[in-house]
Amino acid sequence: MAGLAAVVLAAFTAASCGSSGPETTADGRDVLKLAIATPTWNAGFSTLAVAETRKYFEQEKVDVRISLFASGTQAAQQVIAGQSDLALVTAEPVGIGKEKGTALVYFAGYYPKWISNIQVPAGSGVRSIADLPGKRVGVTAVASSGATFVRTAMSMEGQDPESVKFIPIGGGAEQLNAIKSGKVDVLGLWDTQYQIIENAGIGLTPLPIASTANLFGGGFAVRADDLKDRRDPLTRFGRAMAKAMVFAQANPEAAVRDLWKLHPEARGPASTPEQTLLADQAKVLKVRLDGQGVEPGHDRWGEMDEKAVAATVSFMKEAGLIKKTFPATEIFTNDLIPEINTFSYADVRAAAKAAK
Questions:
Q1: For the chain, counts of helices (H) and of strands (E)
Q2: Which of 7, 48, 155, 317 is the most buried (most CB within 10 A)?
Q3: d(Cα 130, Cα 299) in Å, to the nearest integer?
């Protein structure tokens, strides 16, 4: 955990090497460079594809350029160093960064709930955190939020995080092969990754850990200065994402197809029937859509619960990720949410129902 904090601090130190400033396209769209934490494209990020293919980004006059990184820490680094304008990240790097002097602020939620936990493949002898010492833990990357959570859970249970070996297993086929071959004993991943694994026929059992049921998971974060200086394009980006969320909730299968159009590698094995792939990936997307506030009767995407954010800050203090707590409002704001949601939810739902 001290190592993770040092990585975030190093990124802050490198901020002076950042980009030269805002860019616009020839047709007047604001360029926004987005860093996301995933080793591969998967259905959990279908909403980003929807925003592109359904031209929601274009309608809102933003040109969003997405880069993938192996961990939330690396994605946060990109924003801190000025290489990206915003990042889709979980709470740990933002909380640690706040303590180290990096002012990142969430302007829209994307993970309304805590997404990391620890699970073991069927047949494993691991039954609790106390069984972890000496085991091989599969993570997307050693600096990933999943790995951080494993260390955190072990520390909170009085176990030594250095007693396990973290094995980077990436995502996609590499990840599944590592599990099936017995390369790892335990998994430190997150909700959509576990659904992907279960879709592949691998049974999983979560380990009992300290409750994270009421914690905030994370979202879209920017540097505090950019939140003020680039409020308008960030609001328009958020509105495009809100539309994409509404579309995906109304027609998850069409959203997955949008992902396949932009990123064919996310489709899956050619030998698997298309309807099977579609059904499985829709399950992954539905995991991410849960709690987003876009289902009928709830027309307010991206709003963050101050109590949940405050609970997450307290959890990070209790887990030893930060030395002292701070007001939740120092790392999030709902100021843009009313403007982000100024569009017709009904019109987007109707378009989604008619889509194929």
A1: 15, 11
A2: 48
A3: 43
30-114+216-354 and 116-212: same fold?
yes
For residues 164 and 137, the answer to whether their CB atoms sit within 8 Å is yes
Cα gap 116→216, rounded to integer Å: 11
> Which class for 91: exposed (0-12), middle (13-18), buried (19 or more C-beta within 10 A)?
buried
Count of beta carbons in the 10 Å neighbourhood of residue 20:
6
Give the count of beta carbons closer than 10 Å to the beta carbon of residue 185. Answer: 21
Confidence label for 7 from pLDDT (cuts 50, 70 and 90): very low
pTM for the full predicted model: 0.89
DSSP 122-160: TT-S--SGGG-TT-EEEES-TTSHHHHHHHHHHHHTT--
343: left (phi over 0), alpha (psi -120 to 50) or beta: beta
Whether residue 110 is predicted with pLDDT greater than 50 in this model: the reply is yes
For residue 298, what pLDDT is reported?
86
Token look-up 């860093």 returns 35
Is domain 116-212 in CATH 3.50.50.60, yes or no?
Answer: no
> What CATH topology corresponds to 30-114+216-354?
D-Maltodextrin-Binding Protein; domain 2 (3.40.190)
Token output for 236: 């328009």
